[in-house]
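Why predict the complex rather than its parts? Because the way molecules touch one another can change local conformation, and only a joint prediction can capture that. The input here totals 560 residues.
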Amino acid sequence: MEKMTNNMQNYNVFVPRIVDNDEPYSSGHRGCVGCGEVLAMRLVAKAIGRNAVVCASTGCMEIISSQFPYNSWKIPWIHTLFENSAAVASGIEAAYKVMARKGKIPSADISVVAMGGDGGTFDIGLQALSGALERGHDFLYVCYDNEAYMNTGVQRSSATPFGASTSTSPAGKRRSGQHAWKKNMPSIAAAHNIPYVATACPSYPYDLMEKVKKGLAVKGPAYIQIYSSCPTGWKCDSADAVKVGRLAVETGAYPMYEIVNGQVNITIPTPEFRPLKEYLEIQRRFRHLTEEDIAVIEERLHKEYRELEEKSKCQNK
Amino acid sequence: MITVNINGKDYSAEKDETVLAVAKRNFIYIPTFCHNEAVADYGSCRICMVEIWTKKGKNKLVTACLFPVEDGLKVETNNERVLFIRKNIAELLLAKCPASAEVAEIAAQLGVYETKYRIEKDGNKCILCALCTRVCDEVVGRKAISLVNRGINREVAIPFYDNAAACIACGSCVYICPTNAITMTDKDGIRTITMPNCEMKFALRKCNSCGREWIPEKQVKYFLSSAPGLTIEEFDLCQSCRK
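Output of the joint prediction:
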């Protein structure tokens, strides 16, 4: 699988008609208006297909897809706690392997996908995820990163970007929002020497689906972090859910890249950045930031992007 | 509803379904290259060969993507005869396109790593499955590319190898290509679509606000002519600048 991911953002108009129209994730869920996360989940479900088991940790996506007595999933789905979705997924994978060995099922080509929000991945589920990546189970971990605990009322997590105002890092006279920088989770995942790590965004749907397919195709663990906009928590217009993702990529706030066997590859290159202000001003969680604050954030984000670019260049030589 | 027996197990099916559709729904793996649900099936890659027995006692090898199911049909997707013929087809495809990673992957699944046939053309990736021409015709409705010549000279091309008049640079052929024989790049205001035997270049339109190139001029022209209510102002701003 080496489809040219570098061009995935260029497709338009007619390509949606070629994409498989089977929907393993049905409509009628309880997502907020303009939820970017559930859009990402639908695209992930389309990409993994029907021959799969999904294992979801607690979070927005579990709440909205399984309100008793309904469920939006048309494929096997199991709810786990915040901390152990990776552990449960590795158990499922191991069980299928044993069943295939004993001849109880024809083959073990069933995809196992674990899902979690940023809280369940960056903070609470990190040790279970690290264990599963280290043991080398053949599964895909998808993290929906909406940059705070949105489900319980916008508390900060370690994925919250610098300066964002949340209910536990409120902007006021002394402090201007979140005081720490965002944790670099893809690097942590890549440090386990796993074959595939990627970041994706539902604003670039073909790129996202291709990355999920790549993650499933590799033998061994894969980690995909999906930037998903949250109009409720970020306090942006619900009509801007897709636009905010595009702006995040084009301003350099959330670079789209993949790390294949240690080699960094920027899939949506940004040769020149848009001003970061365009991205920040449409979200009310950033409205307290002064020009100096924005300059500091912009400098840091650009530095991180340049570092990524350097990495991709020196390895591609 | 009718009953079809695949690999010794009974499955129910609708009347006009193909063997491939029934197998796919029940997670029975059959390798394919030239199948896509968006376009009509064509049966050119032949890798989806299966063996069938009809109720009347007819026994033959057919392509799963084209053969319609009937009541009492018995199908085997993985027996010795099917695998023998599938391995042979994989060898022929390897001889046709030695540069394709996707063909090598499916061949490796069948245990084929090298071919006994003569390599037709080094660096070739196109398996002539015609998905690109079919999608251009059936989905896009432009017929910009087609299969030209006969026999061993057959290839995918634009008319006379240099006339890209009907192409609107939508990239559908690039997306659907199962072996990545067609590629597309956007650079310096030019979109280049590279086919195995020719190259097409299209100028891109700039966004009035941010100055990025985002849509081919030709596509804008096509949309303006095909949708009467549309005005040129709609294409002034790119997706990210639009309010």
